[in-house]
Amino acid sequence: MSLPNDPLILVSVVNTKLRDYYPNLDALCEDLGEERMELEVKLSSVGYFYDELQNQFVIR
Fold this sequence. Notes:
The chain has 60 residues and is of the alpha+beta class. The protein has 3 helices and 2 strands, in the order αααββ. It has a two-stranded antiparallel sheet. β1 and β2 (56-59) form a beta hairpin. The model has no long low-confidence stretch (mean pLDDT 96).
């Protein structure tokens, strides 16, 4: 599955997947073949960062 390019839609999709299927961001990236750093950079461009304790991207 390819992830959406729009960062605001992407954050919704990624957070849903993290909540429902993955214990952490590394597991999601490995399973989907995504680069963690690229995902974090794209989402930080709209103010989101990965919170390990919550296992989701949250707004700064």
